[in-house]
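Customer escalation, tier 2.

The customer says the design service returned an amino acid string that "doesn't look like it belongs to this structure." They asked us to rerun it and document both sides in this ticket. The original structure tokens are below, unchanged.
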């Protein structure tokens, strides 16, 4: 439980929020204090339960600076509704873990997969912080773990609306038509959820490409700062090969994709990694 300073600036004052995390996923359960609460100096949580009883309680305690007095005041709030939400979120995390671990049940998919891609014999869920799949509505591609959502983008404000209209969701993912999606893991203001993005992470995507492009660079995925100049890495398709860019420079070891002669949808699994001290240490090409 801590004060949300995003709207309050650097004054240290703000609404107290309850957050849930298992050290991998993190979800804002909601506010604990009122909108006009200020000067919260300390907070704690109490959880009460008894064996064999269903009556469980979650209580927030927080300390406020006294108004006109040197002594602080102590407040308590029963978080009955928030506790229900906590249970719902935990159940969702477990459900998504089960779903992800069964992404490639068929032997053929397992045999064709490259090591380290999304279709390895067992898809790891340990350390998996986000999963973007078929939950898509109104230009928002929702994280199945209830964390940070991705947003469909275009090249300008006008094309943003066109991109949202042209992007189609399904239970198997999202079909982009003249559009792309941004997963803004570093844009939560002062309440940064995903510090790992500064140090060490892996991006994995399962992609179906309709009609293999014959010319021009087709960006597939990558990571960058909140500007066009500071790019960590990117993976694109160009002239029959997958090309990995580290910053603005290509990385050696380009690989020719195995699309074959078919012009229908061809599913491929791609992964790129970033490690401390190096922009990109290794990568698994689509294949």
């Amino acid at each position: 439980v801590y004060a949300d300073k995003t709207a309050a600036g650097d004054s240290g004052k703000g609404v107290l929020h309850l957050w849930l995390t298992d050290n991998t996923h993190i979800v804002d359960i909601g506010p604990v204090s009122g909108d006009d609460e200020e000067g919260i100096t300390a907070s704690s949580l109490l959880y009460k339960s008894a064996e064999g009883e269903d009556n469980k309680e979650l209580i927030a305690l927080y300390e406020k600076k006294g108004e006109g007095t040197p002594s602080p005041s102590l407040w308590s709030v029963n978080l009955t509704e928030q506790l229900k939400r906590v249970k719902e979120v935990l159940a969702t995390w477990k459900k998504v873990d089960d779903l992800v671990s069964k992404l490639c049940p068929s032997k053929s998919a397992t045999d064709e997969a490259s090591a380290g891609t999304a279709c390895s014999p067992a898809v790891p869920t340990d350390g998996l912080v986000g999963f973007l799949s078929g939950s898509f509505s109104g230009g928002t591609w929702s994280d199945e773990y209830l964390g940070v959502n991705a947003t469909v983008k275009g090249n300008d404000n006008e094309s943003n609306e066109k991109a949202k209209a042209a992007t189609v969701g399904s239970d198997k993912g999202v079909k982009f038509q003249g559009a792309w999606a941004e997963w803004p893991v570093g844009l939560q203001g002062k309440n940064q959820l995903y510090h790992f993005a500064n140090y060490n992470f892996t991006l994995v995507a399962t992609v179906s490409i309709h009609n293999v492009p014959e010319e021009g660079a087709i960006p597939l995925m990558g990571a960058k700062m909140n500007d066009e100049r500071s790019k960590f890495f990117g993976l694109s398709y160009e002239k029959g090969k997958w090309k990995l860019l580290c910053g603005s420079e290509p990385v050696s070891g380009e690989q020719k994709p195995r699309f074959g002669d078919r012009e229908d949808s061809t599913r491929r699994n791609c992964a790129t990694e970033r490690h401390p001290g190096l922009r990109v240490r290794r990568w698994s090409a689509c294949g």
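Tier 2 assessment: The sequence is consistent with the input. The mean pLDDT is 72. The chain has three domains: 2-88, 130-187, 199-287. Sent an explanation to the customer and offered a walkthrough call.
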